[in-house]
Amino acid sequence: MPNLLDPRIDDPSDDSSDDPIGGGWSATLRRSVRLFNDFRVEQTDPARFYTALAADSVGQLAHYTAGETLRDTVLLDVGGGPGYFRDAFMKAGATYLALDADAGEMQGAGIVAEGSMLGDGMRLPVRTGSVDACYSSNVLEHVPVPMAMADEMLRVTKPGGVVFCSYTLWWGPWGGHETSPWHLLGGRFARRRYRRKHGHEPKNKYGESMYAATAAAGLRWARAQRKAGNAEILAAVPRYHPAWAAWLMRVPVVREVLSWNLLLVLRKT
Fold first, then answer.
1. Residues 6-44: pLDDT tens digits?
2. What are 101-136's pLDDT values in tens digits?
3. Does any domain span residue 199?
4. How open is the CA angle 29-55-69, to the nearest 5 degrees?
5. What angle (nearest 5°) sits at the alpha carbon of residue 115, between those of residues 39 and 77?
6. What domain range includes position 163?
């Protein structure tokens, strides 16, 4: 396994295709319907949802790589969690590395796989320019300074490599996660309401482990990287929507509500 640890950091803790390589993936309406149906059981049957999303992610990420393949790609998954994505990416031929800030999440499937790291997404314990692809799915909304994590993802990616960053938008229907739709009246209100109703805190605590991430902030960051000559933008689209709905990201306010989830794909220059 390649040695990617950043020498500056002494303590690391401080339509889905059936083709495993991902060829033939496309953002069809049928794919969107299938993903949203799987999402309905995200709370009751997370394995079903995340396994389906992982399979889709292989095709979607490969779609933006040379030759539409992940074979021999060194991939870092920021916020890898219990490992649902690991199996899908390794089956596609990638060398899979994962980082998570929560040891409990990493052990969610009962094991902590080789190549897993405990660390901070805003200060990745990985060498600059050392991975071919840096991937993150639905993590940025759980980081207090989201664009600091995006900066780190770009830093650790090799020139010519791909940054794939997707996150849930606050003003969308699932912006408050399990406290939705009450988050639309305020994150702290939704958190208190959940606590009163269920007798315990939600898993995703507004102000501690969940924050109000917006499309506007992500788009500003991506454009700033392009302007600075750090990267080219390959995609800025609603992740789960069919390709013809990409126009949503061009309409302020509308994109925050209807896009649900923003996907940014950049190629480092």
1. 333 333 233 333 333 334 799 999 999 999 999 888 878
2. 876 665 554 555 667 888 899 999 999 999 999 999
3. no
4. 100
5. 40
6. 29-169+213-268
